[in-house]
Task: inverse folding
């Protein structure tokens, strides 16, 4: 675990490549800290290939039998976030902001929209024009989804967050019906036509944290 | 008696689905324990119990929708706490 820096009262922690469950437990520890008045914590990480099913998902969202997934070394986790099914794998930057939603007027939609704006700003730094969709959360490039968003909230502290396809192997999305919709996923690398430097993406996310804090205080 | 209410979750959110009850009828629950998890389109939200007491009745079952402000459960509060 690397603590990158302290920016404007926000602790940024890079877990690197970490198993989903381990990162989940760490999020829960951070939720408890923020509940006890700790500053917001921004967790960055990548996960080994894992399919996560949110509260609105069921096994019909998996397009591949469980035993076949197991053979391919892909775990399946049922988790406590909104949304249906999504995939995490190396090359995808997962961002878990642990923040007090009192700073967002206790408004889940306001916070979800804010996460989408952060994602769109981030992509803009790499000259990728993304937008929100009126029918589904996340950030989109044309008809293709590039960033997935979903949160869990306990005592108004938010956890989970967003998954940004940086250099994700997009073939893996054929294993699922992402978000329960018939959508195509894309990545920064696919759009740019070459791999994107993950360290630069992380740095830009951290820079946007400052803006996050500014907006959260208004 | 105290009702567990589905609270305001934000502008434009009119309802949520009860995803998971952490307690059943007859269970003793402490103040601030998460009693139920509800889910909107992209968020799960844990509702804490505001009193110590016994779960008297669950009014909305798992998988069913509730409107903002709707009672989800009834808690018989502990008289020692009041």
Result:
């Amino acid at each position: 675990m690397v603590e990158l820096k302290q920016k404007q009262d926000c602790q940024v922690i890079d877990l690197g490549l970490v198993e989903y469950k381990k990162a989940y437990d760490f999020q829960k520890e951070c939720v408890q800290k923020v509940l006890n008045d700790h500053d917001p914590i921004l967790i960055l990480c990548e996960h080994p290939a894992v399919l996560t099913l949110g509260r609105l998902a069921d096994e019909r969202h998996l397009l591949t039998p469980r035993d076949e997934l197991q053979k391919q070394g892909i775990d399946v986790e049922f988790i406590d976030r909104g949304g249906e099914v999504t995939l995490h794998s190396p090359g995808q930057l997962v961002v878990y902001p642990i923040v007090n939603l009192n700073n967002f007027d206790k408004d889940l939609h306001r916070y979800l929209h804010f996460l989408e704006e952060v994602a769109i700003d981030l992509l803009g730094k790499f000259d990728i024009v993304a937008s929100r969709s009126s029918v589904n959360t996340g950030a989109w490039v044309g008809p293709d989804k590039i960033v997935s968003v979903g949160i869990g909230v306990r005592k108004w502290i938010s956890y989970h967050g967003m998954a940004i396809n940086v250099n994700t192997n997009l073939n893996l999305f054929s294993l699922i019906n992402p978000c329960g919709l018939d959508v195509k996923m894309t990545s920064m690398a696919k759009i740019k036509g070459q791999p994107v430097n993950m360290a630069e993406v992380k740095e830009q996310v951290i820079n946007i944290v400052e803006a996050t804090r500014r907006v959260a205080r208004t | 008696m105290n009702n567990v209410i589905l609270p305001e979750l934000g502008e434009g959110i009119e309802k949520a689905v009860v995803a998971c009850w952490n307690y059943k009828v007859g269970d003793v629950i402490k103040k601030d324990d998460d009693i139920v998890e509800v889910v909107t389109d992209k968020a799960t939200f844990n509702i804490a119990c505001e009193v110590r007491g016994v779960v008297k009745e669950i009014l909305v079952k798992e998988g069913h929708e509730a409107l903002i402000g709707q009672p989800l459960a009834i808690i018989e509060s502990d008289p020692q706490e009041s």
Observations:
- The radius of gyration of chain A is 16 Å.
- Chain A has a mean pLDDT of 87.
- The first strand of chain A starts at residue 2 and ends at 7.
- The interface with chain B takes residues 54-56, 80-83, 105-112, 137, 149-155 of chain A (CB under 8 Å).
